[in-house]
């Protein structure tokens, strides 16, 4: 049965008069989250108190939700766990991967990676000392830069600015052929594309949930470890929740079973409850349908903007197979144009120096909304409505 | 004006018929949290969407709340920030401290420390390699074990099992005299005792908020860095939120101003909102009053139990100045006794092998509740009510 996107749209509360094309920054509020949080707070925390850890199933939420996300990212059941932030999960994957490739010292990444991933790698290299190095090349040069010096290939599948999508299976295969491991950051893939971490051969994958998975501001991150590594990987962030027996209170660390060992501290139950509720929207969604609809929306937006706004330059790959679920256009006055759009109710975002980003998420964006956004953008460009001090003065950017 | 503990008690929702002496595991639900969360979800996330980061002040919550906690732990304003879990904050403090003492390789801790702190130190030593070592001694031997080989003294101020409180100023001074730094874990101190990190000389302090600060299950942790280190400390977990300009998206990391650099990833806004609301209870609380009342409650409990239950052995220091805000008693059948207590509505907890733990938090526990708990415990012990298979069979322990 094809996915019913009108039904998924009905599960979101979106403000009247808003065309929300920024789900790639922060997903909107699914309609059932408030009630679930109220229940978690009042009925679970309020009345069960400490016993909520067992009675309300809090302790197992990180792996139960992990299984729900596994389906969305094409992972094997039982190999994804939630917790921490994406930056921490990047660090965790990277530290473990480097320990598995002890004769090599190079982390290979690209300049299109999200900066926090690069910063975390930088910090880890400094802690490791001893010649460890983060090497970054342009995104299009990654394949050629994979050689036998590389310990770990660390990439974000979909570029946060351009939406350019790396070829996970091909790059991973090349990394493996050279004896390297591959870590994939799915921040802009999970819930946005037909990402397949198992088929793609990823050794580790990490991602956040507050974008296309709609878990709310600061929702927890996830980590995937390929089954072939699950019982041998050693966590560098060896917290008690990843211990084989957390409540034995042993003085020495023993890694827990499989993916459990990638847990660190006490899980954030309120954020996890919000995420768990948010994932209900996904129950009837086929990922192949999502991908097809996403491409349809993005193509319509590109065609419309290019036909109507000749001064905007496409900043995303033209081939839909090489894009995620966002489209970027470039303009030297991109900041002001985005402010003008926001003032008209079209919410995208701006990324320095000149990128206008628009995320298209079939769960709650339909074709007529894409057309309406094109119309408003075209009006703004035709009338130079962006060209006023009110829009050109930069506020603190998020 | 002395603190009005009847007024603080009125700000909590506690289930009828429950004597909750487990706030040292998970604090109960403050009455205003549900409304604050509902507002954050529905009015902020739901209607502001991505603009909530600025409009609703989400971006600054970690430092704004840090200032509220600073008062409770005797820290300077502007030097505490929230985020991550306590285990991550331990790692972060430890990695930074070791980088500041480059000629030394020993982390000194004690066997009474919370295991996760030891595990994180173990993991960091493995990542650092090169002779780094976690050395643990018995709590009473810590002072003598501080010598010129020690890089970092890492202690939890109040022992999670016995409630024994280390002398922070004396041990920190001795560490400094030997050229070492001191990291204090305040998990069982913050909101429980008159902890004074600035006066105590701590270089770093970390703690959790879901115990005595009542932020709910999995509430975020905090970290304090002494002002003298604030602008020189280098974060090992160098995430984008700790960058000098997170939204410049530079490819290289530059630490942010002062405590901001200890931020890592996107902050957990729902948990932070719950914490922020929970801290309202503290607005009228003088820490000296809290400490005095806490001692009064603990002393009454010890006197009552010792008078009525001769087979229970005090597992906490007898001198109140050497205790935090919890009292432990030991008994070989401690597990069953705790189950019998819970069945009667007295919620404490059990820690292997034989520890019954009772937390006394003046914010919502009064003297008549302490006396009622003593009475129930005495009845259970006098009647051997714990001696049934129903109580002796161990369930999964939290």
TrEMBL record, chains A, B:
It catalyses: 3-hydroxy-L-kynurenine + H2O = 3-hydroxyanthranilate + L-alanine + H(+); L-kynurenine + H2O = anthranilate + L-alanine + H(+). Pyridoxal 5'-phosphate binds at residues 86-87, 114-117, 156, 185, 188, 210, 240, 266. InterPro entries: Kynureninase, PyrdxlP-dep_Trfase, PyrdxlP-dep_Trfase_major, PyrdxlP-dep_Trfase_small. SUPFAM superfamilies: PLP-dependent transferases. HAMAP family: Kynureninase (MF_01970). Homodimer. This is Kynureninase. The gene is kynU.
